[in-house]
Amino acid sequence: MPPTPRIRDAVAADLDLLAQWAQAMAWETEHKRLDPATVRAGVAAGLADPARARYFVAMHDAPLAGHESVGVAAGTLMLTREWSDWRNGDWWWIQSVYVAPDYRRQGVFAALYRHVEAQARATPGVVGLRLYVERHNAAAQRTYAALGMRDAGYALYEQPFE
Are 110 and 142 in contact (CB under 8 A)? Predict the structure, then answer.
């Protein structure tokens, strides 16, 4: 098993990679082609305003011949917040999860999740973590359950304004 990736906050220099991964995730999960300029602007807005979104990047240390190891971005997730009047606190929503194909099934998402979970537990007023998952994505559902998450019993409805 490869070493556990280290997790860091995303920075402005990650913009293009995060936008690329968001587009790849939309295609892989929903077969949606997103407008690259819109996605790039959306990621840039999230990176610029931590109240809007926070991105984290999982880094794998890869050896370079004759040099010290260099960090290679392996995956990401974005956090947003939702106020709950029922609980007088914030739910942290995990969104925009993407793990690069070469790093899948190697604990990258688990490392990202555990990092976010630890931060959530240490932050006063955070009442829990949530995410949504495609109904037929059984592999993702097993991963989330193995990390202690459970089906919240809700169906998701939307009305997009296109």
Answer: no
Residue-number span of the structural domain to which 78 is assigned: 6-146
The domain tally of the chain equals 1
- The residues, ordered by sequence, that sit 6+ positions from 20 with a Cβ below 8 Å of its Cβ are none
- The residues that bridge with 61 in the sheet, in sequence order, are 71
> Would you say the pTM of this structure is higher than 0.85?
yes
Give residue-wise pLDDT tens across range 75-91.
999 999 999 999 999 99
Q: Any idea what the CATH number is for the domain that residue 126 is in?
A: 3.40.630.30
Amino acid making up residue 150: R
**Using an 8 Å Cβ cutoff, are 51 and 45 in contact?**
no
User: What does the pLDDT average to over 111-120?
Assistant: 97
CB crowding 41-80: b at 16 or more within 10 Å, else e: ebbeebbeeeeebbbbbbbbeeeeeeeeeeeebbbbbbbb
Rg (CA), the chain: 16
